[in-house]
Design goal:
heterodimer; A: 914 residues; alpha+beta; 6-stranded antiparallel β-sheet; 19 helices; 66% helix; flat; B: 397 residues; alpha/beta; Purple Acid Phosphatase, chain A, domain 2; 2 domains; 6-stranded mixed β-sheet; 11 helices; 15 strands; 32% helix; 23% strand
């Protein structure tokens, strides 16, 4: 189909407008809002849809408000190779006219309803409604992506191009398969509906059946248990019955043997009595023998211990005496040690005194030296006090001297120098000012070299007088010399000397006196460093009183005559005899310190010797005391034991006496012999009776009866236990019977079989449905992939001119674009930006248009305003695309924004004026 | 109650022997012999509804034994074991059994069998049975002879355990001497009939025959075998009163036994109302399908008939669909129609014409072709899927 011309009269706000469109290429119809662009599209739809007598609200809405006019539309188009001119007016002066020019030039016309019917027939014959709706984009619909799967021309085109037939006739089957599948399965592949319920029913029935089965198994176990218990009970009953019979037999036998057993018991009793009596007499006899033996043994012990007591006491006495002697010797040595210690103290005192005396002498010498030093300090101080010259003053004098010499040299250079010499006898008088020095007269052959800074008058009285006057600067030079001289004089006066040399001499003397003073003071400090000499001398003098010779004792230790235990003392005492004999204390005190110190050393050696002697004596005394203690202890023990033995002997004798008083020794022996004879006689009788018991087997009968009774009791217990267990089990079984457990199990199994059968049937059908669904879906997907390829490749080809080579798309079953990939990023279309979605929608429509362009079913692509979401760069690319699309078909764009389409090449712009 | 067996139906198969060793009897006596009532039995293939009706039918058959007792003038009825399916049947079963027994107007002697053995927890010793058992019913709990009517003793060997250690009939006649008219009631398989397959001790047929021959026993009523079976003229299995499996050859009878002074007449009288049938078919074309349909149509008592179908062959998809439809429909009419899974090997055999007839193309045709090839390669589930797809396509088209 191609649109050639649309004419609207009295259509909404349009009074009369005709728009002629190129049959091929892109046309942009530009007009402001409300100018009627959308009315063009609306008018085209209405003319083919509603007859002129329609009372539809759609018709009433297009009538201009307040005008009694009939809206009219004329459309010129090519349809199926025919040229149609179709005019329709509604409401007022209704009319319909259709003129068709066949390809062969034949012309036909219809009017009225026939015209409408024919036009409608032709339209539906040649225009696929889906394709028409797909490619006509109303205002505000530009974002909607087309879903063109049901567009027959498109399917024809893709089928032709892909070579894959699209079986539209199979759709009812696809729907039926889908429906069948969903009866049993969810889309996610889980069981649903009756199938899922039957699964649950099977599980529940299995559980019930298992429980019922288990209950019945327990019943079977109880039956087996009861059978076993009944058998066991019968067995025990039978054994018990047999056993009770043997118990009765044993009881009969026991009655018969009881008499002989009684007799045996009587004899046994007598035998036991006789035996007890014999034992009693034997015990008495043994006791008597023990007493006799005890008395004898204790007497012997007592004698031995008395002797040992006497010996011990003798030894203890001797030891006590030895201790006494040792302690006396120790006292003597102690006394000797005290004397030797006094000697040492005296020698120490003498040494100390001699040391003090030497110190006193030294201090007195120092005291004399100190007096001398202090005199020297006083003398040097006097000298130093007198001398006013010091290093600074001498240095100032040296400077003043140098300045005088310097000023004079300057004067000599700057003033006349007059040499005067007296040659004759005549006195030569000299006077003037500013001449220095100026002798008042010159002696014979005396000459003077005079510098004249003022005025010099040289006169020979009466003969000549010469006046020399100095020049201009002479006075200045002179005053400098005078100043220097005056300065020097002041300093000399200050120093109290006549010249520099004298000052220097005085300075040297002052240095000498100062050195001497320092030396003397050092000596003084040295002498007074140990404190005040006077005090020290006084202390020493006081300490050294008048000397007296010490009394030196000369005693020998009194070691003789110590009785007993002397051997030890004697051993250490003998070598010391020489020490005592050779020991001589000094008669007089030595006068020299060395001698006194020697005497001290000797006294100390003596003391040490005596201390060793004392140690030995103490050891000997301790030993003697220890030995004495031991001997005393031994003596005490011996005494105690002896006393104890005496007591025991007395007690034994007493006990023996008491026993004899009761029964003498002979009577004891006789009683025992008698008792023994009686016991032997009764025992013989017992042996005879026992032989009778053994012969009758009486003892075994009683034991066997006791054993049999015990077994019977045990068997009765066993029987009772079994009987109880059997009753319990039978009670359970009775209850099981009341509960009808077998029926329950059978019912549960019946139910389980029924639901299993039902489920198996459903499962077979469900699996079949899944298999069919899966197989058909797979084949459809494969086919869809094949026949969507032509459209997909068209879209991608167009898209790449806008987005570049990475642009790809995927189509769904309805041939709608589902996903887009750009630069490796794949997105669902609903995730794309608004602009991208709009561009993709336009690209898809252009691709569809392109695909169907060669067939008879092609229709114009109409965009009622689009590209409102694209940026400038995209507008350029999309414009180029729209321009190229016009090469293959009729593209009509309605817009109030012509700028958006300025990049569409070769576009025809039609301006609608308001 | 239509279809109930009528006296004499099976009499043509019975012989009436002359036995010379019978003790002298002044008059003949007639009694009924039945067994294996197995009240409370469940047949899972019947489903809950079928089970309920079949269970009731077993009780109804007992009641009909009462009618037969009246019509034959029977003096008493003996039931040789397995009166109940279990010792632990539900109370309702016991009470209904007691009600059915009350419909028998003559004394009834029941023998415990292997299903309802006189074991610990036995139904026969339960308070429920004791409380509701009709007075004219006697349960043989030992081997002591019971003089049921003057001059006629009943001896029996009740099962005391489900696992007897020796010939379960022997205790019933071991210590008997000839001289009285005696009927032995016993339960178990005969050595000669078990084929050595029994896992419990069997009844020594030769010993029984010897006891009959020397006059200790005049009739031996056996239970456990559900089909009415004559062992000798005086040794019989009565069979169950109502069929329990399709394998049973002659179930649903009660035996009317008439003992005369020197003769015996045994007559099988049908009291059962149900049928259980195995049917084997070869299915390969429309004609064979039609034959099956006709077979179904000719069967009587459909609502009381269980059919187990064994089938082999292969069918085009349309015929397979038709077969499914037939079986489904007959399943509604009959008590149950079941494919015998073990022997059901009918396969779909789709051919190109089937698929062409559907006028499918494109993916649908390709999918169907794939399933067809899978089936041809032995994939059974593909056959089911193919049938389904065929039906959907046909219905959708």
């Amino acid at each position: 189909m191609r649109l050639h011309c649309l004419t609207l009269r009295n259509f909404r706000g349009v009074k009369d407008r005709s728009v002629r469109l190129p049959a091929l290429g892109t046309t942009v119809v530009v007009g402001d809002n409300e100018v009627g662009k959308s009315s063009l599209v609306e008018a085209f739809g209405l003319i083919f849809k509603l007859p002129d007598d329609s009372k539809s609200t759609q018709i009433r809405e297009i009538q201009p408000v307040g005008q009694d006019v009939g809206p009219e539309v004329t459309v010129e188009l090519t349809l199926g190779g025919r040229e149609l001119t179709y005019t329709k007016r509604w409401l007022k002066n209704r009319s319909t006219e259709l003129t068709i020019v066949e390809p062969d030039g034949r012309r036909q016309s219809w009017t009225g309803r026939e015209a409408h019917n024919e036009a409608e027939r032709l339209f539906h014959e040649h225009v696929d409604p889906v394709l028409w709706q797909t490619l006509m984009v109303s205002q505000g619909q530009s974002l909607v992506l087309p879903t063109p799967a049901d567009a027959e021309p498109l399917i024809t085109a893709v089928t032709a191009e892909s070579g894959t037939p699209v079986d539209g006739a199979s759709m009812p089957l696809v729907t039926a398969v889908e429906h069948e599948y969903l009866r049993y399965w969810t889309r996610g592949g889980r069981a649903t509906g009756d199938f899922a319920r039957s699964e649950k029913a099977v599980a529940a029935a299995e559980l019930t059946a298992a429980q019922a089965m288990k209950a019945m198994e327990e019943v079977q176990q109880d039956i087996r248990r009861a059978e076993r218990l009944a058998l066991d009970l019968s067995d025990v009953d039978s054994r018990l019955t047999d056993h009770l019979k043997s118990v009765e037999e044993l009881r009969e036998r026991k009655k018969a043997t009881d008499e002989i057993l009684l007799r045996r018991d009587a004899v046994r009793h007598r035998a036991e009595t006789a035996q007890a009596r014999l034992v009693n007499h034997t015990r008495t006899r043994v006791e008597r023998e023990r007493l006799l033996d005890e008395v004898e043994r204790f007497a012997k012990t007592d004698a031995e211990l008395a002797k040992r007591r006497t010996d011990a006491e003798t030894v203890a006495k001797t030891a006590a005496e030895t201790v006494h002697a040792a302690e006396a010797a120790l006292a003597e040595v102690v006394e000797l040690k005290d004397a030797r210690r006094t000697d040492v103290q005296e020698a120490e005192r003498r040494v100390s005194e001699l040391v003090d005396r030497a110190e006193l002498d030294r201090l007195l010498g120092q005291q004399a030296e100190l007096v001398d030093v202090r005199a020297r300090i006083a003398a040097a101080g006097t000298i130093l006090d007198r001398i006013k010259v010091d290093d600074a003053l001498v240095s100032a004098l040296e400077d003043a001297r140098a300045k005088v010499v310097e000023a004079r040299a300057a004067l000599a250079a700057g003033v006349p120098e007059v040499s005067v010499r007296r040659l004759g006898a005549e006195p030569v008088e000299l006077s003037g000012t500013g001449v220095d020095p100026l002798p008042s007269e010159l002696g014979f052959d005396e000459s003077a070299e005079l510098l004249v800074s003022g005025e010099l008058v040289i006169g020979v009285p009466g003969q000549v007088e010469v006046t020399v006057r100095a020049g201009g600067e002479a006075a200045t030079l002179r005053s400098r010399v005078d100043e220097a001289v005056r300065r020097e004089k002041d300093l000399l006066k200050k120093a109290g000397v006549k010249d520099l040399a004298a000052a220097r001499e005085l300075l040297r003397k002052a240095d000498t006196a100062s050195a001497e003073l320092q030396e003397a003071r050092r000596t003084e400090r040295s002498l007074t460093a140990g404190g005040d000499l006077g005090e020290r001398i006084a202390v020493l003098t006081a300490r050294l009183g008048p000397e007296e010779p010490a009394e030196v004792p000369n005693q020998q230790p009194a070691v003789e005559g110590v009785p007993g235990q002397m051997s030890l003392f004697e051993e250490f005492a003998s070598p010391h005899d020489t020490l005592f004999e050779g020991f001589e204390l000094p008669v007089g005190e030595p006068d020299d310190l060395a001698g006194a110190q020697r005497a001290l050393e000797e006294a100390r050696a003596e003391l040490a010797s005596v201390e060793r002697l004392l140690s030995d004596a103490e050891f000997a005394a301790a030993q003697a005391r220890k030995a004495a203690d031991e001997d005393r202890s031994e003596a005490q023990n011996a005494r105690a034991r002896s006393e104890l033995a005496g007591e025991r002997l007395a007690a034994a004798v007493e006990a023996l006496d008491a026993a004899r008083a009761a029964l003498d020794d002979e009577a004891v022996s006789a009683a025992e012999i008698e008792a023994k004879a009686e016991a032997e006689a009764v025992l013989e009788e017992l042996t005879a009776v026992q032989e009778q018991v053994d012969a009758a087997g009486a003892d075994q009968v009683a034991g066997a009866l006791a054993d049999a009774l015990a077994v019977a009791t045990r068997l009765q217990g066993e029987r009772d236990t079994l009987r109880d267990a059997l009753r319990t089990t039978e009670g359970r079984l009775e209850q099981s019977g009341r509960d009808g457990l077998a029926t329950r199990r059978d019912v549960a199994e019946l139910e389980l079989a029924a639901v299993r059968s039902e489920h198996e049937s459903l499962r077979r059908r469900a699996e079949a449905a899944r298999r069919v669904h899966e197989t058909l879906s797979r084949h459809r997907a494969e086919a869809q992939t094949k026949y969507s390829e032509p459209l997909q490749s068209r879209i991608e080809a167009l898209g790449r001119s806008v987005y570049g080579p990475s642009f790809r798309v995927w189509l769904d079953d309805d041939l709608a674009v589902a996903e887009r990939e750009l630069d490796g990023v794949r997105l669902r279309v609903d995730a794309l930006s608004t602009g991208a979605q709009e561009q993709l929608a336009i690209i898809t429509r252009l691709a569809i248009s392109h695909l169907v362009s060669t067939g008879e079913g092609s229709v114009p692509v109409i965009f009622d305003d689009a590209l409102g979401w694209s940026d400038k760069a995209r507008l350029r690319d999309m414009g180029a695309l729209l321009g190229r699309a016009g090469d293959h078909g009729q593209i009509i764009i309605l817009t109030c924004m012509p700028d958006r389409y300025e990049y569409v090449p070769r576009a025809t712009f039609i301006k609608l004026e308001s | 109650m239509g279809g109930v067996g009528v006296r004499g139906v099976l009499s043509g198969r019975l012989s009436v022997p002359q036995v010379s060793v019978l003790p002298a009897m002044e008059e003949s006596i007639t009694f009924l012999h039945s067994s294996d009532w197995q009240l409370g039995m469940m047949r899972r293939f019947l489903g809950p509804d079928g089970q309920a009706r079949w269970g009731q039918a077993r009780l109804d058959a007992v009641a009909r034994i009462g009618e037969v007792a009246v019509s034959t003038g029977a003096a008493f009825v003996v039931v040789t074991g397995d009166v109940f399916e279990h010792n632990q049947v539900e109370r309702q079963t016991i009470l209904r059994a007691c009600e059915a027994l009350k419909r028998i107007p003559v004394p009834v002697v029941l023998l415990p069998g292997n299903h309802d053995a006189l074991e610990p927890g036995s139904l026969w010793t339960s308070a429920q049975w004791q409380a509701h058992a009709p007075e004219h019913v006697t349960v043989l709990t030992d081997t002591k002879p019971l003089e049921i009517v003057p001059g006629v003793e009943i001896v029996g060997a009740p099962w005391r355990s489900r696992r007897p250690l020796s010939d379960p009939a022997a205790p019933g006649y071991a210590e008997l001497k000839p001289g009285k008219t005696r009927i032995l009631l016993a339960h178990g398989q005969l050595t000669s009939l078990s084929g050595g397959m029994s896992d419990v001790p069997t009844i020594d047929q030769a010993a029984l025959e010897a006891a009959v021959a020397d006059g200790r026993l005049q009739y031996v009523g056996l239970g456990d075998r559900h089909s009415t079976t004559r062992v000798t003229d005086r040794i019989w299995f009565s069979g169950t009163q109502e069929v329990t499996t399709p394998e049973e050859t002659d179930p649903g009878n009660v035996l009317a036994v008439t003992l005369g002074a020197d003769e015996i007449v045994v007559e099988a009288i049908r009291v059962g109302a149900w049928h259980m049938v195995d049917h084997r078919v070869e299915l390969f074309d429309e004609e064979s399908i039609q034959a099956l349909e006709d077979w179904f149509a000719e069967l009587p008592d459909k609502e009381r008939t269980y059919v187990r179908l064994a089938g082999d062959g292969s069918l085009p998809l349309p015929l397979l669909s038709r077969l499914d439809a037939i079986i489904d429909a007959q399943g509604e009419v009959f008590a149950c129609v079941e494919r015998w899974t073990k022997f059901w090997t009918v396969r779909p055999a789709p051919d190109a014409a089937d698929l062409d007839a559907l006028q499918l193309s494109g993916p649908a045709r390709a999918a169907m072709e794939e399933l067809r090839q899978a089936l041809a390669a032995g994939d059974e589930s593909a056959g089911v899927a193919l049938s389904l797809m065929h039906r959907l396509a046909r219905d959708a088209g």
